[in-house]
Amino acid sequence: MKKNVTRLLALAALAPLALTACGGGGQSTAAEDVKELTVLDYYNNEPDKSHVQKALDRCAGQLGVTLKRETTPGKDLIQKVLQRSSSRTLPDVLMLDNPDVKEIAATGGLSPLGDYGVDTSGFAPGMIDAATLDGKVYGLAPTANTLGLFYNKEMLAAAGVEPPRTWDELKAAAAKLTTGDRYGLAFSAIATYEGAWQFLPFMWTNGGDETDLTGGQVAEALAFTDGLVASGSASKSVVNWSQADVRDQFAAGKAAMMINGPWQIPSLAKTPDVKWEAVQVPVNEAGQTPVAPLGGEVWTVPQTGSKAKQAKAAELVECIASDENQLALAKERFVVPTRTALGAEYAKAVPEMAAFTEQVANARSRTGKLGKDWPKAATVMYTAIQLSLTDQATPEEAFARASAG
User: Fold this and answer.
1) Fold of the CATH domain 148-292+370-403
2) pTM, 2 dp
3) Residue 391 per-residue DSSP state
4) From residue 42, how far is each of 72, 73, 179, 355 by CA, in Å?
5) CA 229, CA 231: separation in Å to the nearest integer?
6) 105-159: per-residue pLDDT in tens?
7) Homologous superfamily assigned to 17-143+296-361
């Protein structure tokens, strides 16, 4: 809690600092006169770092600028932004994890893209929602990720099981596929945001809402996941598993199915003997639309005090979210283009991403309803999940207890 208070106080300082950011004497006032832009992002690991660099280089060439790029680990990005703000050296282009955009925009530290005529139409609604505050869009995401249900094709075929589409089918399939030291299903219910993230498809598709976590649909979703563990179809260890741990269980043949995201595909490629496919996360009742959370990064234009550089930075943001870059990044990184019109073309080119592409079209922003209060709700979620799956509370009691602190 102390860490959160410190972060809030530091963020509050962004507004006056952003407003007084130095543009420097004698700067040009026209975007076409800008020849250099600074960029800050958290793609500091390969191969993502190089894939993103190629996209940035394409845009730099088109815009006639050189780029000074700085990368930092994701866990350090917000602190880096605060430090750069206090020294009045915010980058011209800033990449943010999508749940952080509203919080930073609320400080006045970002410039709305509408000020520069950037076209924000045609993008997945959930991702635009993540980057919107008070009706203004503050960034664009060229790609997104989400969750799906991976399944081992050979295991399901041997058991005579079809890929499940509903909760009843998932429950039956997981039970039939559980044998020996193999569980039917693996998922993450760890006491972190990952655990909350993996619960969202079940909660949202069932009509549950983060604005009322004590509602019946939320408890019903928790009762379903709790039942998978209680029946032995999922391991009791899910309360300790990260999403990487879940992947390892699936890759080792210890789970026939798993809830996970497409960022695991490069790792799964290292175990080519595991033949897998993916479908959308099953729904409670046939006919429901699967709704999952949106992951992905948003490129923004900080308030630096230089109107010319801000205008040029907006051009770079628009460029990196172009159709060409969306498709290139999506194919290279196993993520999904955010411009929905590209979905069919992308799914045809990368068929293993078809389910995730369908999922993104209806996926939701975690901060869409709660904004900066989302972390509190996520904490209640993973706390309630832990209480229920470790038999400390019933699914009906768990959220009330977690909400009470």
Assistant:
1) D-Maltodextrin-Binding Protein; domain 2 (3.40.190)
2) 0.89
3) T
4) 5, 5, 41, 27
5) 5
6) 998 999 999 999 999 999 999 999 999 999 999 999 999 999 999 999 999 999 9
7) Periplasmic binding protein-like II (3.40.190.10)
